[in-house]
Design goal:
47% helix, single chain, two-stranded antiparallel ribbon, globular, 105 residues, 10% strand, mainly alpha, Arc Repressor Mutant, subunit A
């Protein structure tokens, strides 16, 4: 675990760059985390996915899988891979300040 400063806040990150405390997250932090993984700017469609991921995690304690993300978020699986080319569920979770979904490499 390491700490870093993003948007003037000291944050705890795991070895892969995921926030350790989801309650520390803000949209400003999400924008910076997206830049770090090469997504800039975040479009409305990106935010739709990130907010969906975050809401599901906060409701259930687990991030949705890519399969349920494609079915339930309102964004098709094909578009998810266009928006988040290096792994939609993993990147959307990281940008949204939640833990990496189970099953993500």
């Amino acid at each position: 675990m390491s700490t870093t400063v993003i948007a003037n806040r000291e944050l705890e990150l795991d070895a892969e760059g995921f926030l350790q405390k989801p309650e520390q997250w803000s949209e400003e932090i999400g924008v910076e985390l997206a830049r770090q993984v090469g997504i800039d700017p975040l479009t409305d469609r990106h935010w739709q996915v990130v907010r969906y991921m975050r809401d599901k995690y906060l409701q259930t304690g687990q991030a949705p899988s890519i399969r349920s993300l494609g079915k339930d978020s309102g964004v098709s699986t094909k578009e998810l891979y266009q928006l988040f080319p290096k792994g939609p569920a993993k990147l959307a979770a990281r940008i949204g300040g939640i833990p990496k979904p189970h099953g993500c490499i």
